[in-house]
Specification:
about 450 residues, elongated, four-stranded antiparallel beta sheet, 13 helices, alpha/beta, eight-stranded mixed beta sheet
Length: about 450
């Protein structure tokens, strides 16, 4: 059976990139952390587009070497200078309060306050993003230029927060396929007002899940929206018996800016998803930059841990930590653009297309080259516009010996998978190939 997994353009007054950006914009103001109402509110918004099953995991639950921490909630926080003027306010930016800060209400000298203030001296106009998930502490983040202007005197500080036995929350959507084999697509939902890291990832993955809803697929697709590290480990611990069904996977992060794109390989470096990424081409013919696996980054490092070794790679545009906006207030809605998120959406859908559409062809005319001209294929061979497909005809026919899949052929020919697949489909339609099996 041939499965079709194509992005079909739908009539709309807005582009899909604009709709993805609009979803990211709705998520942007929410104060997400590894636990708390910001995660639940975000899942409520995502749930308007896809069916999400929400999981609440109690504080104290163990996940391998980790334990679900207390839930964190915050109502506000501020610093008032010696004149009583509010100089830092959580209501202005949720980056102003260090994530997971303990409650505090005190009057402190500037000297006593300074150890609790976080800035970026090399980027003096930006607010940094800082957290203290697993250490009891409190703090504020502010622009270094404002920090340098603080006068001596006593400051009123207040963080109206609470830490309590609650829950860690994550969401999961399921698109069931026919083969009994799974693909895991994951993105983190724990960062507050950071647009590229990771409102863009949440929005793009939601649109991917929505695009698959009405499709008939070979694979079952699991979409995971979980807090970074602890959320992935909790999911792994609760699904350990089902992990053997996962054949492929992808982690999305930092997917909305104009950098890259970049793909980080799986731990073994030659999984099918790695090979597909290397055979992807953008609309301008540009390749995805491929980097080797490192045990640092996002949740691909949990999925690729030696106890799991799941074939899950990571797709980004600019690599995390390499762009100056990373983990600062400059990672805002102006930093991510509809056209870049649409391109990211298309990349993910192209990778899904390759997973669904990879098959093993057999040349039915293996003694020399079949005559393509009398079958209406000669024009493609002779035309400059379709020169790539013309060469793909020859590669497919030559390697369609029953031992090579379309992905094998794309790699050998150093061509885009989509070009090889198009050529194979035309040859199949003209009776020059038979389809042996899915690959």
């Amino acid at each position: 059976m041939q499965h079709v997994a194509r992005v079909v353009a739908q009539p709309s007054s807005t582009t899909i990139g604009q709709r993805i950006h609009a979803l990211a914009a709705r998520l942007y103001p929410l104060n997400r952390s590894i636990t708390g109402e910001g995660v639940r509110q975000s899942l409520d918004i995502l749930g308007e587009s896809i069916h999400l099953e929400r999981h609440e995991v109690p504080t104290g639950t163990t996940a391998f070497d980790w334990t679900v921490p207390k839930e964190w909630g915050i109502r506000g926080g501020f610093i008032k200078d010696p004149s009583g003027r509010t100089i830092v306010d959580f209501a202005h930016s949720n980056l102003h309060v260090m994530g997971y800060s303990m409650p505090v209400h005190d009057t402190l000298s500037l000297e006593a306050l300074k150890p609790h203030l976080h800035t970026l001296p090399e980027q003096p106009d930006l607010i940094p993003y800082r957290t203290s998930y697993y250490t009891e502490d409190w703090g504020f983040c502010l622009a270094h230029r404002d920090f340098l202007a603080l006068p001596e005197g006593d400051y009123e500080v207040r963080i109206d927060s609470v830490l309590f036995d609650g829950h860690l929350t994550y969401g999961e959507a399921l698109h069931r396929g026919e083969s009994g084999r799974d693909v895991l697509l994951s993105t983190h939902i724990c960062h507050p007002s950071l647009a590229n890291d990771n409102c863009a990832g949440l929005a793009v993955l939601t649109f991917v899940a929505a695009a698959l809803k009405e499709r008939r697929t070979r694979y079952t697709y699991r979409f995971l929206f979980a807090p970074g590290t602890i959320g992935a480990l909790v999911w792994l611990s609760r699904n350990e018996q089902a992990l053997e069904r996962i054949d492929h996977g992808l982690v999305l992060a930092c997917i909305g800016d104009n950098g890259g794109p970049t793909y980080k390989k799986t731990r073994n470096g030659h999984a099918t998803i790695d090979r597909i990424a290397a055979c992807m081409r953008l609309d301008d013919g540009k390749r995805i930059e491929i980097t080797d696996f490192t045990p640092y980054g996002y949740d691909e490092r949990q999925f690729n841990a030696p106890g799991f070794q799941l074939p899950i790679g990571q797709l980004q545009r600019s690599r995390h930590g390499t762009f100056p906006e990373y983990h600062t207030s400059a990672d805002n809605l102006d930093f991510i653009r509809p056209e870049h998120m649409e391109a990211s959406f298309r990349m993910v859908m192209d990778m899904i297309d390759a997973l669904e559409s990879n098959w093993v062809p057999l040349n039915l005319y293996p003694k020399g080259e079949p005559q393509l001209g009398r079958r209406g294929l000669y024009a493609a061979m002779g035309g400059q516009k379709d020169a790539g497909v013309a060469m793909a005809f020859l590669w497919v026919l030559n390697l369609a010996d029953g031992d090579h899949s379309l992905l094998d052929i794309a790699e050998r020919a150093d061509m885009a998978f989509s070009t090889v697949e198009r050529a194979a489909d035309l040859l199949l339609q003209h009776g020059l190939l038979s389809r042996l099996c899915d690959a």
